[in-house]
Amino acid sequence: MEKNTFNKPGDLFYVICRISIGLFFFITGFNKLFHPVFQGYMLKTISSLGFSNPQFMANFVAFNEAFWGLFLLLGLLTRFSSLSLIVIMLVALFTKDLHSIPTELVPVDPAVGTRSMDPFTWLTYFFYLPQVLFIMLLGMFSLNGYKAFGIDQLIKKKKKDFFYL
Fold it and tell me: What per-residue string of b and e applies to 127-156 under the rule 16 or more CB within 10 Å gives b?
């Protein structure tokens, strides 16, 4: 497929998703770096997870979210920026969010009693986690590259490289 043209209707949607996800990561990372409320939330989260030097880690993660989000938004090093954001999402998923999935089901009516979690219900909770969706979309971006409307398109003309395509 020619990268600088839309051959299918889905290509436009793909580019809209890439730009939207890039904008999301850029804004959230920027807020975690510069907005006092989000700085506090990020520091509290990193501290509660037991990372050493939580202030550095909070700033490091926030900077990388903003930096690679901006690159994804611009279509610059699209594959590499997607892979970098996948690493951030995997760490968030495994250190924080998987533990939020309940181990048993508590019904509205207490007389029914609690039930143990079956695998399909666990999967339902798992797929409700936003990190799972982000990882899937970022995986698609890392495999397909920028598609169109990206700085990689300009660089591609000058240099053939995996990270630019």
Answer: eebebeebbebbeebbebbbbbbbebbebb
Over residues 31-50, the pLDDT tens digits come to 999 999 999 999 999 999 88
State the residue for tokens 């600088």. 4
Type of residue found at 5: T
Q: Tell me the residue ranges of DSSP E strands in the chain.
A: 104-105, 115-116
Residue 85: which of 66, 68, 73 has the closest Cα? Answer: 68
Q: How far apart are CA 103 and CA 119, in angstroms?
A: 11
Could you give the CA distance from residue 16 to residue 44 in angstroms, rounded to a whole number? 33
End-to-end alpha carbon distance in the chain: 12
* 165 alpha carbon, distance to own chain's centre: 20
pLDDT tens per residue across span 121-151: 999 999 999 999 999 999 999 998 887 778 8
Q: What is the pTM of this model?
A: 0.84
Retrieve residue 152's tokens.
């990689």
